[in-house]
Amino acid sequence: MTASPRIDLDRLLGRLDAFNRIGALPGGGNCRLALSDEDRAGRDLLVRWMRDLGLTVTIDAIGNIFGVRRGRENLPPVMFGSHIDTVGTGGRYDGLYGVLAGLEACQALDDAGRITRRPLALVAFTNEEGSRFPPYAMGSLVYVGGLALEDAYAVRGIDGATVGEELRRIGYAGDARPGFLKPHAYLELHIEQGPVLENEGRAVGAVEGITGLRWMEVSITGRSAHAGTTPMDLRHDAGYAAGEIAVFVRRVAREMAGQQKGTVGRIELYPNLVNVVAERAVLTVDLRNIDNEPLQQAERKLADFLDRLAAQEQIVIATRSLARFDPVAFPNEMVSLVETTAQELGFACRRLPSGAGHDAQMMARLCPASMIFVPSAGGLSHNVREYTAPEHLHAGASVLLNAVLRLAD
Ligand code: GLV
Ligand code: MN
Ligand code: MN
Description:
Elements: H1 9-19, H2 37-52, E1 56-59, E2 65-69, E3 78-83, H3 96-111, E4 120-125, H4 138-143, H5 149-154, H6 163-169, E5 185-191, H7 196-200, E6 204-210, E7 212-221, E8 225-226, H8 238-256, E9 261-270, E10 276-277, E11 280-289, H9 292-313, E12 316-325, E13 328-329, H10 332-344, E14 349-354, H11 359-363, E15 369-374, H12 390-408
Parallel strand pairs: 3-4, 3-5, 5-15, 6-14
Antiparallel strand pairs: 1-2, 2-4, 6-13, 6-15, 7-11, 7-12, 8-10, 9-11
Helix pairs in contact: 1-3, 3-12, 8-9, 10-12
The chain binds glyoxylic acid and manganese (II) ion (2 copies).
């Protein structure tokens, strides 16, 4: 008889602490932007930990890292994991928690002397955040064939480097063909990054689907001029136009209410000087909705507004799409699996959609997929103060372990 496998919370917390020394920011939080030196150090540590557990490590051509634990039968594996990169001012849990909880699940199975029927495949996908190189979830998108490898390699980041150059530089352009393992199912454990579970006092969320999203770069060309001598009605001010767009994006999202979100997260002005009317501005727009129809409506409203603004200010406004994904609904049997597993373990659980993008949304194109959420204190994420209580980390990891066992046996 083998013992039933159990998550060792202290071991999971220990690995989170050790890993988060990489790219630690003063005051808390982490910066491990995709394909940076910090990302490489994190990858090296993860690969070492995977090998310590006897997992067979494979790196594919977009740098996704897989650690496979053998099963009793040579069947398609149950895959689980997330990402280890962060935004520039990221927290300690976004992505990393799902990967390290997956590692802990493998070790819990070792401790219990348990070999599953199907193999298990723990994965850390490349560049989930997309902060440095758009789009987000690049590694999983390439993996499922939604973006050609060559096109991904050619993406230029905010610092001018390309994905291909940086992957080779850090030594993670692997030999395996993306998509080489076709999973039986994919499960991703992640922090909620929003306030719903905490507000309702639930430990676990069963994720029904993922928001649709548009990322856009807007480039404005006006005319630089003297800030003191140029009459206000003779200006073609790219800085003013950028400000108007930011205000419009927020207003549209608020007017559409419900699930519509709108963010201008990045604005650059040229020449960016106190006494020069800006000649050029480049900004990003992030529009999201869990329904496609209102998302398309928001996109149309923005396009009309940009046309009017360009005409009114006699400036040129050009747009470039950085990402466009339709909303994704996960299959009911996968959502139910998460829900039932959580309930059987005694955790209060509810179904909810995700307003954040995730690798699971891409993997859903390849196999049945879903996600497990745990609460985020204050709903805070993409913030160095991101926090999830140890009891919730334990709950999520336990649900992952047990749901994986069901899928694998
Ligand atoms: C990806 O992590 C996103 O939702 O921005
Ligand atoms: Mn994430
Ligand atoms: Mn994130």
